[in-house]
From TrEMBL:
<dbReference type="InterPro" id="IPR026050">
    <property type="entry name" value="C1GALT1/C1GALT1_chp1"/>
</dbReference>
<dbReference type="Pfam" id="PF02434">
    <property type="entry name" value="Fringe"/>
</dbReference>
<keyword id="KW-0472">Membrane</keyword>
<keyword id="KW-0735">Signal-anchor</keyword>
<dbReference type="Pfam" id="PF00024">
    <property type="entry name" value="PAN_1"/>
</dbReference>
<feature type="domain" description="Apple">
    <location>
        <begin position="376"/>
        <end position="416"/>
    </location>
</feature>
<keyword id="KW-1133">Transmembrane helix</keyword>
<keyword id="KW-0812">Transmembrane</keyword>
<keyword id="KW-0328">Glycosyltransferase</keyword>
<feature type="transmembrane region" description="Helical">
    <location>
        <begin position="12"/>
        <end position="33"/>
    </location>
</feature>
<keyword id="KW-0808">Transferase</keyword>
<dbReference type="InterPro" id="IPR003609">
    <property type="entry name" value="Pan_app"/>
</dbReference>
<keyword id="KW-0547">Nucleotide-binding</keyword>
<dbReference type="InterPro" id="IPR003378">
    <property type="entry name" value="Fringe-like_glycosylTrfase"/>
</dbReference>
<comment type="similarity">
    <text>Belongs to the glycosyltransferase 31 family. Beta3-Gal-T subfamily.</text>
</comment>
<protein>
    <recommendedName>
        <fullName>N-acetylgalactosaminide beta-1,3-galactosyltransferase</fullName>
        <ecNumber>2.4.1.122</ecNumber>
    </recommendedName>
</protein>
<feature type="domain" description="Fringe-like glycosyltransferase">
    <location>
        <begin position="201"/>
        <end position="348"/>
    </location>
</feature>
Amino acid sequence: MMLAPGVLRLGIRLVRQLAIVIPVLVLLLWVLLPNDHFLRLWARFNLSTIIDPTLTTSQFYGTPLPYPVDLNQDVALLVKSGYGTRHRLRGWLDLIQRGLHFDKFLFVADFDTDDLAMVDAKGEPVIVHNVANMTMHRVMNQLNFEAQKRYPRIEKYTTLEGALKHEYNTIAEKVALEFGWEMDTIKFIPSLELAYIRFPKAKWYLLADDDTYLIRPSLEQFLGHLDSSKSFYVGNAVGAWNGRFAHGGSTIVVSRPALAQLFNGHPDVVEEAYVRSLTASLGDHLVTKTFHRIGLYLKEGYSRFFNGEPPATTKIRHDRMCDPIISYHHIKTSEAMMSVHDVFGHATTPGAPTLQQLEKQPIIQDWDHVGGLDEYTHSVKADTAEACQSKCTSKWSPCLAWTFIPETKVCNTSPWMIVGQTEVGRMTGVNTQLVRKLAKDCLSSMNKV
């Protein structure tokens, strides 16, 4: 059945009108919607691979750098601690004195310097800035006495402060152990504000945990690709689509224009963030929600260069075989921190992983190259370690590592490999043929730079 000419013309006219109206409506909604509206966040999340800038591995290693950076002059480092983990700051101080040096750095915490006397290499006292107390002063200026009662976190901090003041260390330790994560939440916003005020000439601001290790060559190379005159908020992207945030333990990186946009341009949002820190579940998530309010979003294209695991359990995946790593996390003791520094602190380039150690023996006793299991790993039955190995090294397998547990005859395979650690009784290995191929491909790409 053919349409009448008049009906056909009407249909064509309607389609043309919709082609104009719909984009206009979408643009109008985009302009009118609040920066943190769920539709805007949904759109950004689903379009992030298109709209967010990124760096390929070959681009990362490319020289000359478009925006060279001096880590001592251009970068301000904040190391965030708490009373319960205050001993880690001594390890960080040792790192700084032994080569992981930043001229502009601050220790921030929920206690004062007097509670942890430290001196630098020149014998000068090292100040620990109680940024949690900064939050308390700010919110108490905004909230009346009755309103303050609605926030239990105020009382918890007051208890910690009082215990430290009167040297009731047992009570302070108990509060830190039970409510340390809540004290951590109120430290993020004041830490960034303090650094912004204290270091006005810094181009970049890094907020790291006291159990985070930074690899200077990788950091310097990475920042050298970013224009510090623009607003940047980058890190290891985690969380749901409506609140993607830079994981604090992997290090949060923010440019000065981004902080100026917040602290100079939106003081109302800053004051609101201080109050919201009294109820927020995570401080690093609060940072992203605060930035959302002013139209600044995490640039996820750089996420893969940041890492939230310690060296032994960091996953080396197919697409990250030659990617440099900027940070390690969960390094809990000063001794462990110095051990990591002994390996990475003398590196001069952010080099790719070596295969030499992996090729020495196909089956390793009392070790594990798989690590934790999740939805991407496979666990099957196998009679021997050799049978488990063959499941991993079959022609089309994406498996990079395997671990065999003789007692249960369980074979675990994974699409990644880790350096690993001692696991008595287990037998493990890597798919060296596939590792060689992946390494050859990415190294070839790097050599073309």
